Please model this.
Amino acid sequence: MIRLLQTPARRWLRCMACATTAIVLLAGCANASKSPSKQVVVDEAPQSSQTEESATTEGQDAAQNEEAGQSGPVADESPASEKPATAASPTELRAQLNITEDFRSSFIHGEKPAEFQKYIVLHDTEGDAVASNVIEWWDSNGKFVASHYVVNKDGSIVQCVPVDKIAHHAGYGDAGHNEQFGVTDESRDDKRGTEPIGDWAPDYGMNSYSVGIEMVHTGTSGEDYPEEQLRAVDGIIAYLDAYYGFESTIIDHNDWRTGNSDCSEEFQPYLRNLQETRTHDGS
Ligand SMILES: [Zn+2]
Model:
């Protein structure tokens, strides 16, 4: 029990609290093993604007449903002949997840309508505490940081922020990353609880354009991610893709802020598969 209480507090200072504490971030940077030069290419497929426009209505409908405790659009008005026979609805995909909702108003920092959704940001919790304890820690530390989803090692999921709300999971990013990632600091974000971490990382736009997914895992521990957990991440991404009607660009937290410890080195093959195929194993 003592370990459970201490581990998330200490570990999370490396991950989420690094958004607001320069000293802690430097400690995380010193431990980081990833190259800081990784570049991310924003997906600008030729058909993306049309797809996003048509998806916005679906996303907004779904957002309203999610607010009402449901998921996915009320009804699919698209002719059946225009959709692949195998396409599952957001409602069906969400029903496949072992998910519990534990929404906390303290984690919400503004509106994120579907037209502002661009990225899915993957994180490690940097500890072994289960999702419910991680969320309790977030809600008690006074920093108002959280990711939308936390995925346990057994594949169970706790969602603590609706996807159409801004959560402070990405924190500050490197100077120039707003422009590189095609995001902007938004008045939609109340910035409550934020503390700048230095001139090198002034950009805050990612939080207003993304959904955050945390995996219970300690980076550089050498421990692989359980298959159940990886499949749950696949499932959330499939749900989000269907919910919005387009594929958000998948990155990890280290892409946004150089030197962050998450995600871990051992996650990189899975990340590449997810970016290419939307599944961790490339299937
Ligand atoms: Zn993180």
In short: The chain is about 35% helix and 10% strand. Residues 1-80 have pLDDT under 50 and may be disordered. Residues 15, 123, 253, 262 surround zinc ion (CB under 6 Å). The longest strand covers residues 119-124.
